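Bump. Still looking for Dihydroneopterin triphosphate pyrophosphatase structure tokens.
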Amino acid sequence: MVRIYKIPVSILVIIHTPDMQVLLLERADHPGYWQSVTGSQDEGETLVQTAVREVAEETGLDARRYALTDWNIVNEYEIYEEWRWRYAPEVTHNTEHVFGLLVPHPVPVSVAAREHLRHTWLPWQEAAEKVFSPSNAEAIRRLATLGGKGNNGNKGQ
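Sorry for the wait, here they are.
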């Protein structure tokens, strides 16, 4: 049996409203761990395609209906030990690309039961404190400097 490993390139999508409410998802495999939409790039996908796919898979939302923006922020971090088995044996680090998805108000979402237990919309300050990932917290704080517009990069479409 050939094992298919994850590509160590991922996206982080901060889904937010103009008044800076941020959508968070609680991980099913780690109750109490809250995060924004994240996911690894599939072979042959662009980063925008990865972002659109992951938003749809994790929330049921069609990112193409909203303002998806590449924030031109790239983070490199060491993959948590507990999740390294998903990657090739020599892989220890991941490169994460940050996007924003501006929605008009806290829209209803349907979480993927295999991945998440529940969701919540929080003011950006609370969201930044609640997420477990430092890069996720930093991206949410960055939203505040953008005034909720989340458009300091290139439009993803």
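Residues 9-155 form a domain with the Nucleoside Triphosphate Pyrophosphohydrolase fold (CATH 3.90.79.10).

Edit: fixed formatting.
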